[in-house]
Amino acid sequence: MKTTTVPGITVYCASSSEVPPVYLEAARTMGSLIALSGRRLISGGGTFGLMAAAIEGALAHGGETIGVLPRFMIERGWAHGRLTEVIVTETMHERKKTMAELSCGAVALPGGIGTLDELLEIMTWHQLGLYDHPVVIVNTDGYFDPLIEMFNRMIDQNFMRDRLIHATIVDTPAEAMEVIGQNLSTTRP
Predict the structure, then answer these.
(1) What does the DSSP 8-state code read for residue 4?
(2) Interior CA angle at 39 toward 38 and 45, to 5°?
(3) End-to-end CA gap in the chain
(4) Pick from 180, 116, 174, 175: which is nearest to 143 by CA?
(5) How would you classify residue 45: left for phi > 0, otherwise alpha for psi between -120 and 50, otherwise beta?
(6) Within 10 A of 90 (CB to CB), how many other CB atoms are there?
């Protein structure tokens, strides 16, 4: 395993390519903006869908991409062929932990149950003080509106004791980068 010194930005998103083009374009833009920021893109490293679009967006702008995949996914050939670095884990939990440890921010783009699993876990870690970096939900085309409504319902009915959604909700990848950039500028020595 290569030693990564500069924290990257973790992106959680769909591995499905059978989605509306607006989501694929947002993922490409996210990857591009991460590369242009000088940060590494950290993702699940998949060869399809939004994951691939983000990876290709970063690579098109000279960025580095780190894919974190459990061994069984590597064996199934699910790793994107152009990743700068591949980190192999034994379990899905180890994958999520590694992605968080390598990052200075986590961004959720539209996705399915795996994306929601990753997003909700990192939000929980943030709430518990185990992840001290920004968590950002990019609500492309209103995709996350039902989830945001559920978060607000949890707050209204006192299921979230601190009455906070432990993520910043934005509409675009550019806004996500602004949130992460603001956090980096306030935490530098």
Answers:
(1) P
(2) 130
(3) 29
(4) 116
(5) left
(6) 10
User: Quick count: other Cβ atoms within 10 Å of Cβ 184?
Assistant: 17
Burial class (CB in 10 A: 0-12, 13-18, 19+), 7: middle
**Sign of the dihedral defined by the CA atoms of residues 37, 113, 47, 172, in that order:** negative
What are the tokens at 153? 């319902």
Q: Is the pLDDT of residue 16 over 50?
A: yes
Residue 118 structure tokens: 């990753």
The chain-wide mean pLDDT, for the chain, equals: 93
Helix or strand or coil: residue 106?
A: strand
Helix (H) or strand (E) holding 135: strand 135-138
Q: Where are the alpha helices (DSSP H) in 37-156?
A: 49-60, 71-75, 92-101, 113-127, 145-156
Q: Which uninterrupted H or E stretch holds 26?
A: helix 21-36
pLDDT tens per residue, range 28-63: 999 999 999 999 999 999 999 999 999 999 999 999
In this structure, is the dihedral angle defined by the CA atoms of residues 155, 160, 161 and 166, taken in order, positive or negative?
negative
Number of Cβ atoms within 10 Å of the Cβ of 153: 11
